[in-house]
Amino acid sequence: MSQPKYRQIASELRGQIVSGALREGDRLPTEPQLQERYGVSRNTVRDATALLVHEGLVQRVPGRAGGMIVRKTASLTFHAHRAEMPAQPMAETDAWRSEVEAQGYEASQDFFLMIQSLSPDLAERLHVEPDSDAVLRRCVRYVNGQASSLQDTYYPMDLAEMVRELLSSKDVPQGTTRLLAERGYEQTAYYDEYVSRMPTPEEANLLGLQPGTPILLHIRTGYTEQRPVRVSFNVFAGDRNQIVATHGDVRIIARFRPEEAAR
Amino acid sequence: MSQPKYRQIASELRGQIVSGALREGDRLPTEPQLQERYGVSRNTVRDATALLVHEGLVQRVPGRAGGMIVRKTASLTFHAHRAEMPAQPMAETDAWRSEVEAQGYEASQDFFLMIQSLSPDLAERLHVEPDSDAVLRRCVRYVNGQASSLQDTYYPMDLAEMVRELLSSKDVPQGTTRLLAERGYEQTAYYDEYVSRMPTPEEANLLGLQPGTPILLHIRTGYTEQRPVRVSFNVFAGDRNQIVATHGDVRIIARFRPEEAAR
DNA sequence: CAGTGGTCTAGACCACGCG
DNA sequence: GCGTGGTCTAGACCACTGG
C-alpha cells in the first residue's frame, strides 16, 4: 500500500500541475527546497522530479536563472489530407507552410536528397527487391525556428528514372504528388499507419526533443492503379503536433469546426 | 564533446540492441556486472539503464530470476475504419474481436457505463452546453489477457434519451454505430485526431504500461447530417498497437497487402 | 537462501549562465 | 560570484522470487 517517498512527492507535485495550482511556465520549488520540505536526500528529490520529466509534465533548465518549469503543450494541427489530394491546386510543402502560418507561426524547412539501398521492410512496402536503390527525399520542418517534424519519402529508383525531377536536390515547385500525377502516376489509394513510440537519440537530436517526449509517426504508402510509388515517414514531435484526418462530408464538420472550412 | 559516463554506457548497450547482438527477450548484464565492466558505481549503471528503459528498449524485472531484458515490439494492427462504416454488417466490438483473433491473439473486454458532466472541451466537440450531462461508455480491451487499449465514447444526454439502449450497461448487439443509424442518426462524417503523448499514471495503471511506453490517442468525432452525435477517445498502449486507415480504392492496396483483403 | 532490481542516504565536484 | 541543475561515488537496507 505504502508508496515510496519519491512517488508520493511526485504525486503531490503532479496534483499541483494538473489541478492548475502550477501553470504552464511556472517554476517548481528548487531541489534544495524540496529536500527541506519533505526531509529527504537530494537523490530522492531527483527521482521524484525525474518521474515528472518522463511524463512530459516538467522540463529542467540548468543555470543560475534555471529551475524546473511546467511544460507548455502548444499543439500544431497537421491535416493528413490537405497536402495530398491530386485535385489540390497546392504543393505539399506550400500546403504545410500555409497551414503553419494560418495557425500563427513562422514556417521554414530544410531539404536533403539521398540515394539509399532499401531495407527488407521498405522494399516490401514498395514491392521491389530488397537492397535495390531508392531515392530518399528528406524534409526537416521548422516552426518558429524550432524543428517540429521531419518527412522522409522513398521513391523506387526505376520510377525516379522516369520522373527525373525526383533526382534533383531542389524543391519540386508543384509538389511531388502533383508532379507524379502529371507524368501519369496519379496516386489513387493511400495506406496510412499511425504509431506512437519513443524517439531514437538521433530523432531526439534532430527535433530537439526534451526527455519524456514521444513521437507520432505517420507512415503513408501511396499507390497508383498499378503499384506502390512512394512511402513517406512523417516524424512529429509529440509535444508540438497532432494529425487530423476527415472522412465523409467535410461541409458538415465545417459547420461545427469553422477552422476546417479554410479550404 | 565528452559524453558523461552513463550516456556512453547506454550508447554501447543500445548499439548491441539495435544491431541485433542482443535480441528481443535477451537479458542484459546484471547491474554488478556492468559496474565491474565499466568501473563505475551502481547509481551510474542505473542512470545508464534508466535511459534505455525510458526509450522503451529495455524492461527491468525484479526477483531472483529477473534482470533487464530487451523488450518485444509485437504490434497489433487496428483498422480505424472497419468497425465504423454503416454499410458494415459487423458490430464494433465484434469487428475488434475478429481483428485481434485474425492476428492470432485472444480477445476479451470489460464494459462500463457512466453518466458524466461534460468538460468545456468535450462540450465544444459535441456542440452542447458545458456542464450538461453525457453518457460515457467505456470499453477496456484485453489481448491475451493483457489490457491493450481502452475506448471512452461520450453521447449527449438528449440523444441517449431518444436512443435508450445507450443507457443500458449491456453491450449493444449490433454495435452502437449501427444502432444509431437504425434510429435515424447515421454518421456521415468523421473528424479524426491522432496524438502521441506519455500516459497519465491512471492510464499507465489501467493498461499495465511499462515506463518508457507512450500512448497513441485516436479521437473520433462522429457527425450526422445535422450534428455531432458522439466523440470517442481510443487510448492505445503504444508498444502494442498501431492504427491503420486506408483511403481510395482498397482493392489496389489489397493486391500488395494481402492481409488487407480480409474484408 | 541467494541474487536480482528498488529505494534511499550523504556526501562530492562540475557546467552553466544571470547579476 | 553563486545558485541552479548535471553527474558521480560508496555505501545501506528492502522486496521479490526461483532453487
Question: Would you mind describing this structure in some detail?
Answer:
The structure is a homodimer of 263-residue chains. The first copy, chain A, is of the alpha+beta class. The longest helix of chain A is centred in the first third of the chain and has 14 residues, at 5-18. Chain A has 2 domains: 5-70, Winged helix-like DNA-binding domain superfamily/Winged helix DNA-binding domain (Arc Repressor Mutant, subunit A), CATH 1.10.10; 76-262, Chorismate lyase-like (Chorismate lyase), CATH 3.40.1410. Chain A has helices spanning 5-18, 31-38, 42-54, 92-102, 120-126, 157-162, 176-182, 201-207, 250-256, and strands at 58-61, 67-70, 76-79, 107-117, 133-143, 146-156, 189-197, 215-223, 228-237, 241-248. In chain A, a hairpin with a 5-residue loop joins strand 1 (58-61) and strand 2. The mean pLDDT of chain A is 90. Chain A is built from 9 helices and 10 strands. Chain A has a 6-stranded antiparallel beta sheet. Chains A and B meet through helix 3, strand 7, strand 8, strand 10 and helix 9 of A and helix 3, strand 7, strand 8, strand 10 and helix 9 of B. Strand 7 (189-197) of chain A pairs antiparallel with strand 10 of chain B. The structure holds a DNA duplex (19 and 19 nucleotides). Chains A, B: One of its GO terms (biological process) is negative regulation of DNA-templated transcription. Chains A, B: This is GntR family transcriptional regulator. Chains A, B: It comes from Micromonospora pallida. Chains A, B: It holds the Pfam family UTRA. Chains A, B: GO terms for molecular function: DNA binding; DNA-binding transcription factor activity.
